[in-house]
Design a protein that fits this description.
With about 90 residues, the chain is mainly α. The protein contains 1 helix and no strands. The longest helix has about 80 residues, at about 10-85. The radius of gyration is 37 Å and the shape is rod-shaped. It starts with 7 loop residues before the first helix and ends with a helix. About 0% of the residues are buried.
Length: about 90
């Protein structure tokens, strides 16, 4: 049995179909990658927002601690003055 002869036109159609299939597959894969990037983008925005909130909370805590330290310093000074002025 002799091998089937393929004409140039038939070969051109086969190559074109192969490229179309490859193009379709690449579009699907790039679409999936784009979807993953979009998902990661959303997650990153969420993480950045949470980080901003945490920074604000840390700032509030630091201010409260500074206030407590200042009050403790004031109390220490008062105690020292009381000790100094107390009769011995």
């Amino acid at each position: 049995m002799a091998p089937e002869q393929i004409t140039m036109d038939r070969l051109a159609v086969m190559v074109a179909n192969g490229f179309q299939d490859l193009q379709k597959e690449m579009r699907e894969r790039f679409g999936a990658v784009d979807g993953r990037f979009a998902s990661m983008d959303g997650r990153l925005v969420s993480v950045e927002s949470e980080l901003k909130d945490l920074r604000l909370q840390v700032g509030r805590i630091e201010r409260k601690l500074d206030s407590v330290v200042d009050r403790m310093d004031d109390h220490d000074l008062r105690l020292k003055r009381l000790e100094e002025s107390a009769p011995q």
